[in-house]
Amino acid sequence: MSTFSITELAREFDITPRAIRFYEDQGLISPQREGAGGRTRVYGARDRTRLKLTLRGKRLGLTLSEIKDLVDMYESPKDSSAQLNRFLSVLARHREALEQQREDLEITLAEIAAHEEKCRRMLAEGNDRSKTVRKTAAKNKPSIALTSTPTNKMNRTAK
Question: Per residue in 117-138, pLDDT tens?
């Protein structure tokens, strides 16, 4: 029978040993303990399969509770129709939630696009107004010349 260390499984599934220990704490896997004080975890083929199914369930967006229920049913193949029906039920609920999220995202993205367009339009109008105001101000701005008088008073003379 094949056995695996925590490091081997972590490398194989590209996860951390801490994640594997977490799944163990959640009851999804249960390795044998060996060595002094049972400090060394030894995972069998069953644990490897359960870990693989757990990670697959996570990729599907299932909760750990849903994954545990499904994985536990997987271990009792007496009636696979119950497991398949349960899995279909979980997938249907998950599909519904994802479709609602997609709808919410599409609405939000449409609102963002509308706000972006409004901001761009306001910036363009503001830039056009600024240019017009600057041109008008430049045309209407009086020239000021400073001249000195014998008493050192300054007079402003418009040209």
Answer: 999 999 998 877 767 666 666 6
